[in-house]
Design goal:
Blueprint lengths: L1 H12 L14 H17 L22 H15 L23 H5 L13 H17 L4 H11 L12 E4 L5 H18 L2 E4 L5 H4 L32 H6 L13 E6 L13 H7 L4 E6 L4 H4 L3 H10 L6 H9 L4 H15 L4 E6 L11 H13 L21 E7 L4 H12 L7 E5 L12 H15 L3 E5 L3 H10 L4 E3 L12 E3 L13 E2 L4 E2 L9 E3 L7 E3 L7
Parallel strand pairs: 1-2, 1-4, 3-4, 5-6, 5-8, 6-7, 8-9
Antiparallel strand pairs: 9-10, 11-12, 13-14
């Protein structure tokens, strides 16, 4: 160590203008130690500032290196770029240990790219997750309890015999953002009711997400007997929960229950379907071996309004706003194909920036954008809330500096126009305070193509990249943005929905919590059996900022 200190003094001396007397001639052993120290020091040097300016194009220009040097740089970059990130591969105990790393690189590498979460999972939640993993291992596909439950499902008896394990089957439906949020909702319901969650793989779920549980699968087997009926299930199906209630075919006093029920919790559900959120009906549903759920709603807020679940939810999530944050990071790990999209883009364009800002733009206007009033709204929000620095009209007023603060703005949108306008603004004019701002947009698919595999891979990758931001701006009503803010633990600035093709005033507002919004909640008092404003029953479930009739979870009234 003394030799290394001596060598450091020699290095410093070379940069000091004051003349320093030369040290005594070192011995051969000191020279060997100095060479070794210099190798160690140089290997671990990390630049304090991003060197050079960020290119304004969506595809930055890269300096070409010899192939061997480039490969070595890539190998070393992961240790250089992420030295400030704590080594917490299991996310404070949230993830189980022992799963195969090679088959799902993202599970244990995510901590290299994401800042440590300020929200820690409760010990009760961790215990509940470990218990659930054991339940899923014991009752998952291919096990004896699963096969016995299948026999009950296949039987034509109107009354089902009790089974060792009960199941909730999530039916694949809607866009990717909706699917992620509804799987999380279904899993929380499984935790609360001691059921096993099985996920319908649909056309691409296995291509997007790794298996989350050790030594078992959460995907519904291809030979599940009711799979072919999934698309035909609706509110008029004889096995629909709401239909049976409406026609007095299901009630609390019944001695037997059917082998399965279809739960229609879609945005168009009726008053009878919504009785799912009443404790009285849950007492009946608890006896049914198989529940098949189709929904496009993040229905977690209404679970908080049910007395039978309220205390358990408090035990699981003492910090109420962390539900999707914890469950999302536990359940959703990008497959290696998607993880490659994420890490290649991050390392190429975002990793060296001093600050990363995510801007998610989703419009619900007729016609193809970009729309001038939306562009006006975006710029008004970014400048008004000081998310981006102001630009100077005096192009010669600011001198460029290699040590200028670098800001990388990741934009996601179906069109490239919004990002290009901002990019040109910061290319043509310097910032007032000297920062260098670059804009990057991974894709612009023009319109949503949920049926295409690569489209959904890119969508999942972009949600994840947005969640790695330091500051996030999202669009009202968009589940795409909800996923990003929840995974990242970020309270975003929300771009309000424009009306009559005019930019709203104010253009955006800060979210009250990191939780997603339940877009179509019931307005029913189960105990009084009358309509009510469910956003005013408990202080931690209120109406959303972006959808006035929606519900979301916050910590309490003090956040308003």
């Amino acid at each position: 160590m003394k030799q290394c200190n001596l060598f450091m003094l020699l290095l410093l001396a070379t940069n000091v203008k004051t003349v320093i007397p030369p040290p005594p001639c070192p011995s051969s052993e000191q020279i060997r130690n100095a060479i070794l120290c210099s190798y160690i020091i140089v290997r671990n040097l990390r630049p304090l500032k991003f060197s050079g300016s960020l290119n304004g194009s969506t595809q930055p220009v890269e300096v070409q290196q010899p192939q061997e040097q480039q490969q070595q740089g890539q190998q070393e970059q992961s240790s250089v770029d992420h030295t400030e990130v704590p080594d917490d591969k299991l996310l404070a105990g949230l993830l189980p240990s022992g799963l195969d790393k090679a088959s799902c690189l993202s599970r244990y590498q995510s901590s290299m790219y994401r800042k440590a979460s300020p929200f820690k999972p409760s010990s009760y939640l961790l215990s509940k997750l470990r218990n659930y993993e054991e339940l899923h291992r014991r009752c998952g596909p291919g096990t004896q309890p699963y096969n016995e439950a299948l026999k009950v499902l296949k039987s034509r008896h109107k009354s089902a015999a009790p089974t060792e394990c009960n199941y909730i089957v999530w039916i694949s439906y809607s866009g990717l953002g909706n699917r992620i949020l509804t799987v999380a909702s279904a899993f929380l319901y499984a935790l609360l009711t001691n059921r096993v969650l099985l996920v319908d793989p649909g056309t691409d779920m296995t291509d997007l997400f790794c298996e989350p549980f050790p030594s078992t699968s959460w995907f519904l087997p291809a030979d599940f007997p009711l799979t072919k009926q999934f698309k035909s299930f609706d509110q008029k199906s004889p096995q629909c929960h709401g239909y049976m209630l409406k026609n007095s075919l299901l009630n609390v006093s019944m001695e037997g229950v059917p082998p399965y029920l279809y739960l229609h919790l879609d945005h168009d559900y009726n008053d009878h379907d919504k009785l799912f959120f009443c404790d009285e009906d849950q007492s009946v549903l608890g006896k049914v071996p198989w529940l098949l759920m189709r929904t496009d709603n993040y229905f977690v807020p209404s679970l908080y309004l049910m007395p039978s679940f309220a205390q358990e939810l408090h035990n699981l999530f003492p910090e109420k706003v962390t539900i999707f944050h914890h469950l999302g990071r536990y359940l959703f790990h990008p497959t290696n194909q998607v993880w490659g999209l994420i890490t290649r883009y991050y390392n190429a364009y975002l990793s060296r920036a001093d600050e990363r800002i995510g801007v998610q733009i989703r419009t619900f206007e007729d016609g193809r954008g970009p729309f001038p009033h939306v562009q006006e709204q975006i710029q008004a929000c970014l400048f008004k809330e000081k998310i981006l620095p102001q630009v100077s009209k005096d192009d010669s007023s600011i001198s460029s500096s290699k040590n200028a603060k670098s800001i990388a703005v990741l934009t996601t949108s179906l069109t490239s126009g919004y990002s290009e306008t901002l990019r040109d603004m910061y290319w043509e004019h310097p910032t007032v305070t000297g920062e260098v701002v670059g804009f990057y947009q991974p894709s612009h698919e023009e319109f949503q193509q949920s049926h295409k595999k690569m489209h959904n891979r890119k969508a999942w990758a972009e949600m994840y990249l947005l969640s790695l931001s330091d500051t996030l701006v999202t669009s009202a009503w968009s589940t795409f943005g909800y996923v990003a803010q929840g995974l990242g633990g970020l309270k975003p600035w929300i771009l309000y929905k424009p009306e009559n093709k005019k930019a709203p005033q104010p253009p955006c507002g800060r979210a009250m919590s990191i939780e997603p919004c339940f877009h179509a909640p019931p307005f029913w008092d189960c105990k009084a059996k009358r309509g009510t404003d469910t956003g005013k029953i408990v202080p931690h479930v209120i109406h959303c900022e972006d959808i006035s009739w929606g519900l979301k979870v916050i910590e309490g009234r003090e956040e308003l």
